[in-house]
Amino acid sequence: NTALIAGVIGSIVLVAGFNAWQGHQLEQRSQASDLYQNILDASASNNVESVEALAGRLSKEYDNTAYSHYAALELAKIKVAKGEIDAAKALAQSQSANIGQFRIFTHHLR
């Protein structure tokens, strides 16, 4: 009886913990998505300073999301437009170096 009760309680705790983790992950992706949309809006209005600040924030706070990679590429596009070719190249290269890790991560999520 005790083992059965302990097993049921353990299962409930495990399921609750998993659900909490999934909720946390969903919230993180949602926040990163909102921040990335702000980057796109700032880029569309040619607000370079905002794009740079938001991309840096997204990269720092949500570096484990696809949005951080997209933000870096959007920032590279801005750098090209400003004539900062070396900075754009460095951003693009850093993202291409991380693409293998990103592919493994996204494949795991499927």
Q: What's the N-to-C terminus distance?
A: 39 Å
Quick one: how many beta strands?
Answer: 0
Strand content is: under 5%
**Estimated helix fraction:** over 70%
Mean pLDDT across all amino acids: 86
- The Cα radius of gyration reads 20 Å
- Low-confidence runs of at least 5 consecutive residues: 104-110
Q: Give the CA-based shape.
A: elongated
Q: How can the largest sheet be summarized?
A: none
Look at the helices and sheets and give the structural class: mainly alpha
Question: How many helix segments?
Answer: 4
Topology order in helix (H) and strand (E) letters: HHHH
Which key phrases capture this entry?
110 residues; mainly alpha; 4 helices; elongated
Give a quick precis of the structure.
With 110 residues, this protein is mainly α.
